[in-house]
Amino acid sequence: MYEELTKNVRRSAFLVTGVILVTLGAGYFLGWAIGGAAGGIGGLLVAGIIATIMSLSSWYAGDRMVLRLHRAREVSPQEEARLHNLVEGLCIAAGIPKPKIYVVEDPSPNAFATGRDPKHASIAVTRGLLDKMNRIELEGVVAHELAHVKNRDTLVMVIVATLVGVLVLLADWTFRSMFWGVGGRRGRGGDGGGPAAAAFLVLGLVAAILMPLLAKIMQMAVSRRREFYADVTGVQFTRYPPGLINALEKLKADTTVVRTAEHATGHLWIEQPLNVKDSGFGGKMNRLFATHPPLDERIRILREL
Amino acid sequence: MVAVWVILGIVVLFVLFLIATYNRLVAGRNRADNAWSQIDVQLRRRYDLIPNLVETVKGYAKHEKETFENVTRARQQGIAASTVGEQAQAENMITQALRQLLAVVENYPELKANQNFLALQEELTATEGRIAFARQFYNDLVLTYNNSVQQFPSNVVAGMFSFSTREYFEIEEGATGPVSVQF
After folding, report:
1. Quick one: average pLDDT of A106-116?
2. Active-site residue, selected from the candidate residues A4, A137, A139, A145
């Protein structure tokens, strides 16, 4: 279990560093393509500031929006004694304060965690989850959600999303300015000649299209890695892998879809709320951009603990 | 001239390392202390639940006097315990007595359906869980702290300021014997 934990931390750090490097490098390159070295740094700064403001507001107020979007209702200990007791016990094991507890009245079994840090967190479970899981399985799922809270995954994903946002903005500007001929100014002085400038233009365009795609893929890779990490951290709290394993098996068999689900908040749930094909070429593409790893792989890793 | 600055820089870095490691060890030890007293908090919660439970069951099963006495006596011992050894022994007695009480309840279907009793049973299960988690958390913190005390290079700092490893919470020998269930 401890090896699995450190492996996940190492791989997360590796991926996030990768996103940072790709963003900084590509951003600088794209900015430079527009207007020289000064343009490089300037472009990076402006894009960085805009993306940071947007991400800070989503990190700070995002939890309220998400809870309202999914029509989550806060529940008291009298209403849901078993749920409150499970959360309290696991918070003792995790060493985090008890988050606010919400229920989403939806028949599809699922759960999510949100909030900017462990002191201001909320977790929500669907009515379907409460009905279909027994106590041990529910404990496994709640432990996974509390693991997201403890590992500050909302913060991690906001950082990564900021960087990707920076990159997308920059790539957009680069693409537009190249399209309108700003980048071409470099070759007109006759110093590089026509073909070099044209090749450079093509390279820039390709980069402008591919870099955001690459960054997005890496962002999804970070999301999937954090899901594995939350699985193992949750088991560290319960010290009982079969709890979560059985819950995941039940989720695999269940095909109901969350009614209020859409792609934007897909990454917060314990399992993808929308059904997506995951075999064949289309499936492979879906898996690259999936926020969650396939259930089978998660179950396999948990069994090997 | 440059050499002087380099040496100064190294000394500063070393002092910073010392401070950071010392503080980390102190924090680790304090967290473990805190977690140890938190176990007590959960144990007290269980003591508070027991009288209520006994009263509810008594209402339906007046004849099971011996079972009630066992539970109440075990609880008194737990409250009165002063050393860690006494407490562990009392805890074990309470667990056994409670198990006996809940087994007795099986014979009284009206009691099993009673809302009050069901709520109490849920609380009891949850409390047992909380006690277990509190102990687990304490052990986890002790692991982290012991690692800091024993691993290089923080073990050097630990030695300098006499930080020693902590003991894990373990159930004592006699307590894990077989529990007899009579029908």
Report:
1. 89
2. A145
Give the strand pairing for A100-104 and A121-126: parallel
Contacts with A, B 5-34, CB within 8 Å = none
| Close Cβ partners of A219 (under 8 Å, ≥ 6 residues apart) | A19, A157, A160, A161, A164
B38 domain residue, yes or no: no
A-chain residues near B116 (CB < 8 A): none
Q: Does B122 touch chain A (CB under 8 A)?
A: yes
Q: Is residue B176 part of a domain?
A: no
Domain extents in chain A: 2-303
Q: Residue A99 has what DSSP assignment?
A: P
> Is the peptide bond between A195 and the residue preceding it cis, with omega within 30 degrees of 0?
no
pLDDT of residue A265: 57
pLDDT in tens, B133-150: 999 999 999 999 999 999
Question: Residue B99 sits in a domain of what CATH number?
Answer: 1.20.1440.20
Number of domains in chain B: 1
Q: Picking from A108-122, A158-172, A182-196, which range would have the lowest pLDDT averaged per residue?
A: A182-196
* Rounded percentage of chain A residues whose pLDDT exceeds 70: 78
The interface predicted TM-score of the complex, written ipTM, equals 0.77
Pick B133's closest partner by Cβ from A81, A82, A89: A89
What percent of chain B has a predicted confidence (pLDDT) above 70? 92
Residues of A in contact with B123 (CB under 8 A): 81, 85
Which has more pLDDT, B139 or A62? B139
CB contact under 8 A, A92 and B126: no
Q: Which residue of A has its CA nearest to B126?
A: A85
> Does B8 fall in a domain?
yes
Nearest CA in chain A to B130: A89
B152 or A52, which is more confident: B152
Q: Given an 8 Å threshold on Cβ–Cβ distance, is A93 in contact with B133? A: yes
Indicate if A145 belongs to the active site. yes
Residue contact A93–B38, C-beta within 8 A: no
Domain assignment of residue B111, yes or no: yes
- A271: closest CA of chain B, how far (Å): 26
For B108, the domain range is 2-23+50-165
